[in-house]
Amino acid sequence: MEYTHVLRGTAFTSRSLKEVAVLKDHLFCIDEQGMIAKVLRPEEAHLVDADIPITTLPEGQFLLPGFIDLHVHAPQWAQSGTALDLPLYDWLNTYTFPLEAKFSDVDFAEKVYTHLVDTLLANGTTTVLYFASIHKEASYKLAEICAKRGQRGLVGKVVMDDAQENPDFYRDASTAEALQDTEEFIVAVKELAKSVKQGVYPVVTPRFIPSCTDEALQGLGELAKKYDTHVQSHCSESDWAHGFVKDRFQKNDASALHDFGLLRDKSVMAHSNFLEDADADLFAETGTAIAHCPISNAYFANSVLPVAHLHEKNMEIGLGTDVSGGFSPSLYDNIRQAVMASRMLEDGVNPDLAPHVRGRQDSRITVNEAFYLATAGGGESLSLPIGRLEEGYCFDAQVIDTTSLPIFDATEPLEDIFQKILYLTRPEHIQQVFVQGECVHKK
Ligand code: GUN
Ligand code: FE
Fold first, then answer.
1. How many angstroms separate the alpha carbon of residue 266 from the centre of ligand 1?
2. Strand 67-73 relative to strand 397-401: parallel, antiparallel, unpaired?
3. pLDDT tens digits for 196-228?
4. Atom 7 (ligand 1): residue with closest C-alpha?
5. Which of 221, 272, 268, 254 is nearest to 379 (CA)?
6. Cβ(254)–Cβ(282) under 8 Å?
7. Which of 144, 191, 372, 378 is least buried, going by the fewest C-beta atoms within 10 A?
8. What is the rounded distance in angstroms from the CA atom of residue 324 to the CA atom of residue 420?
9. pTM, full prediction
10. Which residues contact 262 (CB under 8 A, 6 or more apart)?
């Protein structure tokens, strides 16, 4: 049991889907690789060797696992908070594709991506699954910025090769080039990763089925298998996107993605609002996870993901901001929206008990479950040892200063303080952020 430093304080971490462990005044022993080698209770403090430095959190500060954002469109950060007046198809063509096309300029990309990575870290987000743009160089720049700033980044060069469905000003020049650029990107990021403590990962990224030819989807499935990479895409997001795939293949997104070899243990599909039970079974069998994006869903899906129902079906689910379909870079905001939206499914009449239709009394989720989505659920979705403050996990954590939150009673239960943290934390309360044992953000 080798470790080099110890952080002592009170922590909250998911024990299970519904249960949060309160680890009062525990000692987190961190090794040279930034892993949690040991978690000691206060009465075991004497077990720490005298020469190991111990940092003790001041009163009113608490430790949470770093958040894991399973869905961010990095170039869209430049339009966050705007352009939310159109439905998905029009939004893509009017605002988003013209913006993403600008990322052929690597200097512009560097400016936007640096600001985004720093903002996400300041919001307590330590691991991010990113869509970049179709440009290989700018996508690689994003991986480099994550590496440099200390964030664990999983980055995809976006593939959009279908000449009919994508505008001429923003698409891959050909299917062959899309696949070749993806392969070169994978190789380059894997090389970069060799010198990055917290890890950076290449991700196979067909934007969504409507933007890709069959040949590209097939080729991407093969690349994911050849290099054993993560895969990300959008799945059954809105009525339009879901219907488009049904018209093209006479089947749902999930089956079509599966046919192309794109549902794997390390696959994460954004939204997935309109999964039918057979689709959910396919996800569960293949280990494919859902990136739940509750703020974005209010704008583009006009729908609510039936989280409780999908958890009953043993689905892996994490949380995503979907910047900029979701206006906020904060997973705190998305935790809140996940809870609020789930309650809206409850009332009403639904004789068929269809999962994403109102009228299922068992739909609401608690803040504990939403916290699970932002932490342990994200880690499981990515098949990485992250999202929990437990032995064998990476030390990815955020220190929350509650001294300016409305806490007036010294005997207030820690469970209530935890809820106040989830509902009321803003970046100004996030004192420090650690990734793989290293401090990467300090207020
Ligand atoms: N479907 C295809 N592309 C996108 C995108 O950029 N954002 C969202 N929300 N859905 C998409
Ligand atoms: Fe998205």
1. 20
2. unpaired
3. 999 999 999 999 999 999 999 999 999 999 999
4. 325
5. 268
6. yes
7. 191
8. 26
9. 0.98
10. 204, 206, 217, 220, 221, 224, 231, 233
